[in-house]
Amino acid sequence: xxxxxxxxxxxxxxxxxxxxxxxxxxxxxxxxxxxxxxxxxxxxxxxxxxxxxxxxxxxxxxxxxxxxxxxxxxxxxxxxxxxxxxxxxxxxxxxxxxxxxxxxxxxxxxxxxxxxxxxxxxxxxxxxxxxxxxxxxxxxxxxxxxxxxxxxxxxxxxxx
Length: 160
Description:
By secondary structure, the chain is mainly alpha-helical. It has helices at residues 2-26, 29-40, 55-62, 75-92, 111-120, 132-135, 144-159, and strands at residues 98-101, 104-108. Strands 1-2 form a two-stranded antiparallel sheet. The radius of gyration is 16 Å and the shape is globular.
């Protein structure tokens, strides 16, 4: 029973880590041109643009479900992760920053975070809930300084 509940707490960390590194790999210029550029044709993001992906990207994104071949879990964990993956793309592309209940923001959805990614490309690969972008130097907060840093990164990447 402890593992059953603990796994629900660990799954968002698995998902976020997997998404960050998959997304970062999809921005390697060779892969980006052939695969991820399909998704980035949606410069102005909307809920349906979240699943606008090349089939190879779908396999990588939904491939996280394969973790349950090695991590002992109940089928409800698999179902939960499947729903999470499907719904996360819609919410991160929805245009809403927070889920508001009553008069308070209760859940950070992060559309602004991901909107910056679609605008500048080489930043905000992860989700705002986990600090991967901060830790690995790809965070963009919307400031002019962050925009300049991202432009320099993009120049270096494409000069290779």
